[in-house]
Amino acid sequence: MLAPREERGMVQAREKVELKASRRQVLGKAVKRLRRQGLTPANIYGKGIESLAIQVPTHDLRHLLRHAGRHEIVYLQVDGQEERPCFIRAIQKDPISDELLHVDFQQVSLTEKVRLEVPLHLVGEAPAADRYGAMVLQLLDVVLVEGLPTALPPFIEVDLSRLEAPDSVIHVSDLQPPPGVVILTDPEAVVARAIVEAAPAEEEEAAAEEVAPAEVEVVRSRREEEEEEEEG
To answer: Each residue of 91-108: pLDDT tens digit?
Structure first.
């Protein structure tokens, strides 16, 4: 179940993501049978808790990954018990069929700060693109943040309107995290830059070819003058 989003300027507010699961009795290679039944084997682990083997409906899990991703808190409800706030820490897939093989969930405390990499999304338009034909180059696509689990955003938006001239840049320090969240990535790291392409190599070579004959012609004329002087 996904709750409505709330806008926070340059930061996208978190949705509440809920997922139902059940305890898993099938272990080892026998989990292949679970996958044929439409269930994905998974585990829950975390600080101060005992690891728990669970199984999740594959359809629900794929929906979660498609619409929420790995940077959301997932409220796991196992066998109808109290919800467990978790982050997805590892996803195993078949490299050929893309079948979900296994998922690891890390349970967290909502009252303790955690560190998490949050993706960056470029939004808006760069004035340098219209004025100077510049291209926007994204050099950083995630930042490391720290905060309470409920305060961490699923992603942070990067406002391209700051790129007003060629070679203008957006630094990590220009990003706006939500209240209670600190960005740990180097504040001087460049997130995006406006660049203007240089002249194509073909044009430079053509220009060089146009200059070369004149230089050769001058050399020849000097040799001819020297030969004429010797003959004279």
So the answer is: 999 999 999 999 999 999
